[in-house]
Amino acid sequence: MIVRRALPLLAVVAGLTGCGGSVSAHELGEQVTVTHTQTTGGANAPTTTLAITVLTVRKGSQADLDLAGLEVDPDDTSKTPYYVTTRFENRGTASTERLLYVALENEDGESISPINVFDIGLRFAKCPGTTFGELSPGESIEICSTFFVPEGTEPVRVGFLPHDPAAETAYVYWKIDRG
User: Fold this and answer.
1) What is the model's pTM?
2) Residue 71: what pLDDT?
3) Which of 43, 54, 133, 134 has the fewest CB atoms within 10 Å, measured from its CB?
4) What's the CATH code of the domain at 69?
């Protein structure tokens, strides 16, 4: 497997940059319900209701990646991997793509985007990632996202931006317990 930094996808992750300051955030494990329109599909994209729960935020190590046989870009070898597991439940009436992303934010309000783990016949057991397809009404899925956090910074929040093509939306945050 090869690990690469993800480019900001669909502006869901990219928009977190610079959101510092005092932000209201839910506790890990707290479920939040949002209306979300699929980010692909244009004017015909389905809209549904998602119940989102950030379950865990785990600090990893570069050794995790080495043991899994992952190749890490040289620029990322000094960064600490964090694994964020999130449950998405479709409580609406329309199916939506399973490509649902959260982002980490540090104490300065800077976004830390998830990385791509290119799966070449192996699974990264510490954080299996996204499965493709649709999330049907009544179905739920747990997605683990891997993040590389630069030295000298700590993640303080996990964020999700519900998509609504007709209106500006607000981020939903979960605070990370630093204890």
Assistant:
1) 0.84
2) 84
3) 43
4) 2.60.40.1240
